[in-house]
Design goal:
The chain has 241 residues and is of the alpha/beta class. It has helices at 2-7, 80-86, 121-133, 157-166, 194-198, 215-227, and strands spanning 9-20, 23-30, 43-48, 58-61, 71-76, 93-100, 111-117, 141-148, 170-176, 188-189, 208-214, 235-240. It has a six-stranded antiparallel beta sheet with strand order 4-3-6-1-2-5. The radius of gyration is 18 Å and the shape is globular.
Amino acid sequence: MAKKEEKMKVFRLAEKVKHTHDVQTLKFKPKNGKMILFNSGEYITLYFSDNRFGWQGKSYSLSSLPDENSISITVKKMGKFSSAIHALSIGEKVKINGPAGIFYPMAIMKNLVFLAAGIGITPCFSIIKDFAKKGKLNTINIFLFYSNKTKSDIVFFEELNNIATRYPNFRIIYTLTRERSRDSAIQESGRMGIPMFKKYITLSNKNYYFMSGSISFVNDQWVQLSSTGIREKNLFTEAYY
């Protein structure tokens, strides 16, 4: 246990931003001023400083950029742990371990397809923001399929649309599973899958597919893509519990 403690860093909550009725972004700054280094798409594991959940921690993808003086996680309120995160007060301390994960594109990958459901947009958003800031969206093609129950559940809606407006190489297809929207930015309704994908892209091993969302969503997309002949080495996943 002592070894685990040595790897942890103490951060303080600096800011909270509410996106939807059950999603917040929480920005943390390091207590000693020393930031952690990470790649967009990676995650950290957060522990409460008072051990209110024993030694239990929970992993969250980072939604901030690597070169900022803080780290951010975007959390959906869906259980006791995430509810406690939402209830944190400004200035309150947490312990953070990481980063970790392999959910980020390599330099050789020029054609990316992101499949995100709900809060699964978080690592995708970090990658897309990072690529936009570094000018990589001028040379890399990203096609994002983003599924939510309703329009009001969409996180980073305006931010994503603004990036898409500036970079033609980045395209978004929104789909809603529980309502139809009159918003011209939302193109589809129903669950995403092969028929929807084929309306917009050619499914081939020239693309790399990054799937992020609930376990059931990620498993479903993996099975569907694999059935079309997409190779396992072209598939990347980040599943949420």
